[in-house]
Amino acid sequence: MDFSGRNALVTGSTQGLGEALLRKMVSAGLSGAVVVGRNSDRGQAVVTDLRSAGCDAIFVATDLEDATSIERLLSTASTKFGVIHHLANCAGITDRGDVWDTSAELFNRMMNVNLRSAFLTCQGVARMAREAGVPASIVNVGSVAAYGGAPFLTPYAISKGAMMTMTRSLAYQLLPNRIRVVMVNPGWMDTPGEDDIQRRCHDAADDWLERVEAKQPFGRLIKPAEIAETLAFVLSDDAGMMTGTVIDYDQTVQGAGEAQTAPSRHNGA
From CA 173, how far away is CA 181, in angstroms rounded? Predict the structure, then answer.
């Protein structure tokens, strides 16, 4: 993979998967990076590291629930770099809610952060690329929960299911502009955000990760660095004309195996 002379914008890149992806792309020659998140301290720390590795990086604090904040993000990226060649929508929230207790406020927030923000960034990057007359690539990070998910992930699963439709729709529309759009659906992943929600929503003890990983087919949860390899590949020219594709990255096979009872609300995602 070679990202020399290219600029990338990655949401949710102050930690976890988004940060791992940017570091991977910079190691492959990425020239410019827009680090996006809410934590300014973490954002500036990532920027410092990327700059030391030879990438012209900036941090833009962004509230993805706010369309105006996203508009400022895209304007800043355009002013700084002129065009964004690669977009990764890695940010998302996984707040819990089922059919009985999901409020209108939770539902709207989930759709705004997980779905609308991804659409707006796709739209903005596509406009930049079209105006510049250059190809571009986009990867939307979904979830295997998009196929239904556990009951306590109802609004989250809906947002990721809609993202699959959005990915295919945009991929088809943007074919004439040589702008590729792909979606990757990770399974259960070991990230700072997952640790936080396990403790907040599921009363997880300090050893929750060790206990959960011992039960997995591959003996671990997905690590950000390994799935970042897949995301970087689909963004790179090595992916050729791949577009409209949905890739499941999980330790299960959809539709195969014996039916199992869904976990309870307090047994983890």
Answer: 10
pLDDT tens digits, residue range 34-80? 999 999 999 999 999 999 999 999 999 999 999 999 999 999 999 99
Mapped to the 3 state alphabet, what secondary structure does 13-51 carry?
A: CCCHHHHHHHHHHHHCCECEEEEEECCHHHHHHHHHHHH
Q: Is it the case that residue 254 has pLDDT exceeding 90? A: no
Residue pair 125/142 in contact by the 8 Å Cβ criterion: no
How many angstroms separate the CA atoms of 9 and 20, rounded? 13
Specify burial of residue 184 (Cβ count, 10 A radius: 0-12, 13-18, 19+): buried
- What pLDDT score was predicted for residue 192? 82
How many CB atoms within 10 Å of residue 41? 9
Nearest-CA neighbor of 229 among 50, 24, 88, 74? 24
| Neighbour count for residue 119 (Cβ, 10 Å) | 17
Write the Ramachandran bin of 268: left for phi over 0, alpha for psi from -120 to 50, otherwise beta: left
pLDDT at 171 over 70: yes
Strand order in the sheet with 86-89: 56-61, 32-37, 7-11, 86-89, 136-141, 179-186, 246-249
Whose structure tokens read 């993202």? 163
Residue 243 vs residue 190, higher pLDDT: 243
Q: Which amino acid type is present at position 12?
A: G
For the chain, list the domains and their CATH numbers: 7-187+223-247 (3.40.50.720), 192-221 (no CATH)
